[in-house]
Amino acid sequence: MFTISGQLSLDTAHEALVIGIFEKNKPLDGIAAECDNRLHGQISVLLKEGDISAKNKQISKVHTLKQAGVKRLFFVGLGKEEKLTFDLLREAFGKLFKTIKQAKLTEVAVALDTFTTKNVDALDAAHALAEAYYLATYEFPGYKQKKNEREKHINSITVYTEADQAEIKASVFVGSVYGKATNSARTLVNTPSNLLTAADLADYAVRLAGKYGFEHEILEKEEMEKLGMGALLAVNQGSKNPPKMIVLKYQGKETWENVIGLVGKGVTFDTGGYSLKPRESMIDMKTDMAGAAAVLGAMEIIGELRPEQNVVAVIPATDNMISGEAFKPDDVITSMSGKTIEIRNTDAEGRLILADAITYAKHHGADYLIDVATLTGGVIVALGVHTTGAMTNNEALFEQLLEASAETGEFIWRLPITEKDKERVRSSKIADLNNSPGREGHAIMGGAFLGEFAEDTPWVHLDIAGTSVTSKEHDLGPSGATGVMVRTLATLVERFE
Ligand code: BES
Ligand code: ZN
Ligand code: ZN
Fold it and tell me: What is the pLDDT of residues 4-47, one digit of tens each?
């Protein structure tokens, strides 16, 4: 897909050449000035008249009308030079690739050095370019008998740069890995639950383990019974599909220490159980395993890039169904930790399966825990659909995650867990915990509940109920699953200290 090259010339044949331009009141320079000369000063005129815009994320197309080997020029507006960030650049590239895809071009060249600033170097730009290409052009294949007329796809991107080519190549590789792994997660989330059961999710994880040499373990129901995973088993009780507890281990250090535990909610479909969801709220509940998908996507990146870290991924997988066997409100169950839980609402099932998964991650030596889950509608009310809710018991771990998320552009914002909140999840009269102490601050109740199982282990909870799926197409992808937190989790692991 990507070729790295040194000499950029307007006389090389390309369907299109992509050039970044900043808003400034100076004459054009570099390759843009060369284009301007070749086209008899017309680029300057178009810029002045606003037909080419240097404003952030504006894409302008100009034909060279046989004046050059490159047939078309795409100018990517980058706004004010000092304001450009890695994140904005990735979005600008995303918009570019959407435009190029729509124009049905198959081959483009990019003048990479026109996208760099003091803050964003050629390596950043190369990463952003590759990642944006995969993210922005992603499509879920779907199941229509008649596939859309096989559209032309971009199949070659030549990257021109004066920077070290081996380094640029490596950066393009990293960006590609990040983009592709996010797309893997998107596809898992977009897949309907009849085609992606807990067993299918486990098979996927085993294939991933095979590809990257991860140690893996898939717990079956009988083993869960022996281990006393009463919370995961309770949620699965109404289902014909057996539950799976999926464990992947990546050892990047000599010894199994400083282990980062990534725990992802894998509810393949959430009907709500006997606390049944209303019909409109049940739609899209195939996406209730987006936390699991985020963890698997991050493991794909870890498998490709092999950082010097130890990681254990734990995914509790089941659907939440009704039947004569299903668990019910008022039931009291015993989790693997020994803590008993009064069920007040069978629709608060995510925290139950995660409770056992967190305990099991600690059992596998996790010294730090990050859980990712489509846990509550409450987080959508609190933070909307562009910001993931975070809760923590450890400032330092949270800071690291915040830094990673600033780099990936996957925004997170912290909600508090106070002693009063803890009292509420401990408010059951007949058990240690109450799985649904009422609607007030219920995103926080979800987090506080999980905190009871993390105990003293540094832990961050990420509620992605609002951010895992989008109803609108965006610069870095179509509507549907976003693959949120794949890149942030992987960045955290890579940078972790
Ligand atoms: N899977 C849902 C949360 C959800 C809601 C995800 C909307 C994506 C979009 C979760 O299991 C759930 O049902 N939570 C309840 C919790 C309540 C019963 C305490 C909720 O948010 O209403
Ligand atoms: Zn639910
Ligand atoms: Zn759920």
Answer: 999 999 999 999 999 999 998 888 999 999 999 999 999 999 99
- What pTM was computed for the model? 0.98
332's enclosing H/E stretch is strand 332-334
> Best mutation site among 189, 375, 439, 461 for ligand 1, i.e. most ligand atoms within 8 A of its Cβ?
375
- The CATH number of residue 346's host domain is 3.40.630.10
For the question of residue 277 being annotated catalytic, the response is yes
Question: What is the b/e burial string over 350-372, where b = at least 16 CB atoms within 10 angstroms of the residue's CB?
Answer: bbbbbbbbbbbbbebebebbbbb
At 57, which amino acid appears? K
Sign of CA dihedral 243, 296, 287, 366: positive
Do 371 and 354 contact (CB within 8 A), yes or no? yes
Q: Would you give the DSSP letter of residue 41?
A: T
By alpha-carbon position, which residue is closest to atom 5 of ligand 1? 377
Angstrom distance (rounded) from CA 128 to CA 130: 6
User: What is the distance in angstroms between the CA of the first residue and the CA of the last residue of the chain?
Assistant: 34
Find the 265 Cα to ligand 2 centroid distance in Å. 11
Residue 170 forms part of a structural domain = no
Report which ligand 1 atom has the smallest distance to the Cα of 378: 21
**In terms of residue numbers, what domain contains 19?**
2-144+153-160
| Number of domains within the chain | 2
3-state secondary structure of 383: helix
In this prediction, residue 386 carries a pLDDT of 98
Taking the centre of ligand 2 as the mean of its atom positions, its distance from the CA of residue 376, in whole angstroms, is 8
The rounded distance, in Å, linking the Cα atoms of 402 and 411 is 8
What phi, psi does 181 have (nearest 5°)? -65, -35
